[in-house]
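User: Um, what's this?
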Amino acid sequence: MSNIINVARGLEKADLVIKNASVVNVLSEEIYKADIAVANGLIAGIGKDYCGEKEIDVNGAFVCPSFIDGHVHIESTMMLPDEFTKVVLPAGTTTVVTDPHEISNVFGLHGISFMHEAAKDLPLSFYTMLPSCVPATPFETSGFDLNAYDLALLIDKPWVLGLAEMMNFTGVLNQDKNVMAKLELAKSKNKQIDGHAPYLKGKDLCAYVSSGVKSDHECTNPEEAVEKLRAGMYIMIREGTAAKDLDALIPVLKTYNTRKCIFVTDDRHPSDLKEHINGMVRRAVEAGLDPIKAIQIASLNTAEYFGLRNLGAVAPGYRADLLVLPDLKTFKPDVVLKDGKIVARNGKAEIPTRKDDFLSMMRGSVNVKWITPEDFKIEAKSSKVRALEVIPHQLITKSIVSEISIEDGNSVSNVDTDTLKICVIERHRASGNIGKGFVKGFNLKSGAIASTVAHDSHNMIVIGTNDFDMYTAAVALIKAQGGKVVVKDGKILSEFQLPIAGLMSDKDFDFVLNKCEELNAAAHSIGCSIDDPFMTMGFLSLPVIPELKITDKGIFDTQKFDFVDIFDVEASPVEVR
């Protein structure tokens, strides 16, 4: 304590002084010239004539707080935390608030602890929000079921900030006993509770917020975001790979109070990682938002929401997590500092070598009951079915009526109408469950694609033009113990193995990126028209996102909150195509 006070007063040398900085102050919302003195990883003082053991003259460059990702699933990058850090740290992200929801659906508390251990000793702060919905609903089969008693074992850990996205908002409104217990656990410990409630409004929204939920990352239009702002929620503006909401919500940032807005990435593939939160800041500024406010959203707002009181600003007593920016247009940092130490420079970061001896505990997660091509058949009741229709760059789907083909009394894919068979195979407990239906929007002309990354329970999901290729794809993933694959005429065109929980690779960023590009190219070669088909496919099994989804137990209508018969096209109004 005395050391930092003496440094602040100029009586002792600082560990580091950043000279001639244009300080971006997100507290006073101004920019001014000053030196920044750092001691023991904290900002000791800001002013003139500070001296340090080490001095860096930035010659008028902008110095701002580093960026915080307020909601991210590391598993969605398909990389372990060290490789994730290598990519986002040079982009200016030095803190992330993670939700290990994906791996905990496979391995429960062991998965959460694994992710924490894997992130240790990295020059990026990993905080955790405990998964609130494992499984997300009772309408799917996950590897584990985490209740309030399970979460209580971790809630007091200093790296745990609260309860992650409460997707089961219906459970909140109906005061489900298990849901209430989780909410009460977080509130009793004064921990934050994140929300997840697409389209929730009116009195139901008031009830949801009254339960203790204080944020939402599912706003896709200004009207929804404004209503939730008015209700006191923090709006997590999401820009992921499949779900892109930034452009739609720019009007909110330009019109309303931005102090309750946060930038998050949620789910991103490797191809979208090199420009991380800094890319959202850049695009917001390009759209007309004041640069200081954009930086504030990416730093101070997030820190304040999560109670990280010494993060998010350039001021005495704050951690010296700083960016040196050449301008306030590109937002590509020349230098990234973490706790007053340079951790990335000119787009490159040095990360400690990973110890792989702990990876074996997360392998062997694909357990499927013996399958044959016969298991993919659907007995035809009609040539018309209720199908899922994907919406580009959105997680929501439409429920539509579409025309299929019939062969030998069985329903098969109709390539002409782009109505393809989709199956979800339970892969945790070898139960034999296979949910079957049809999907529109992928435009495959031949073959099949499959993945063990399928939110949220991460069962195996397969889409194809014929049963044999779908079977071949599923068998390939069982043998690989997880991954993604493209098959045509019984042959594997591309395969990416994900042996860590069936979700992540143990390879480096370049390998993962190349494999993702190879997979997408292979999918496009068999006709797929979606930019990132595997990311889109991975959300079709999420039964908390409207309108129609598929789980290992069948086709689920989120408006009815129940399963439906795909041949019962008259049961409720749906769009006919």
Notes: The chain has a mean pLDDT of 95. The chain has 15 helices and 31 strands. The radius of gyration is 24 Å.
